[in-house]
Amino acid sequence: MGKLYYCLDCRRIFSSEEECTYCQSKNLKKLVKMAPINVIGSKHKGNVFSVKEDAVTVLLFDPHNNRYKKDFHASELKKIL
Questions:
Q1: Over 80: is that where the pLDDT of 2 sits?
Q2: Which residues, 6+ apart, have CB-to-CB distance to 46 below 8 Å?
Q3: In this structure, are residues 30 and 40 in contact, taking their beta carbons and an 8 Å threshold?
Q4: Cα(70)–Cα(5) distance, rounded to whole angstroms?
Q5: What is the pLDDT of residues 20-29, one digit of tens each?
Q6: What is the mean pLDDT of residues 5-29?
Q7: Distance CA 12, CA 10 (A)
Q8: Residue 1: C-alpha distances to residues 35, 38, 50 (Å)
Q9: Measured between alpha carbons, how far is 46 from 7 in angstroms, rounded to an integer?
């Protein structure tokens, strides 16, 4: 399982463990399994199912509470705090 991190300031997800690649902040936390996330540019919300390198498998919910899995690149996701 790969390691991804998220910035506490801008909430973006990335693989660098030194600083945020988007806002250069040092406030980082490790992204854990079942953490709530949002797909940038859409209204899709879900939970992290698994992490492989820069790919994240997300457990998404539709309006009828049906669940399905979909893979996203880490740069397409944002952590929900």
A1: no
A2: 36, 37, 39, 58, 59, 60, 61
A3: no
A4: 19
A5: 999 999 999 9
A6: 92
A7: 6
A8: 15, 21, 8
A9: 18
What's the CA gap between 45 and 78, in Å, rounded? 10
The pLDDT value given to residue 44: 86
Beta bridge partners, 77, equal: 39
- Gap between the Cα atoms of 26 and 67, Å rounded: 35
Degrees, nearest 5: CA angle 52-21-24: 145
Q: Phi first, then psi: what are they for 76, rounded to 5°?
A: -90, 0
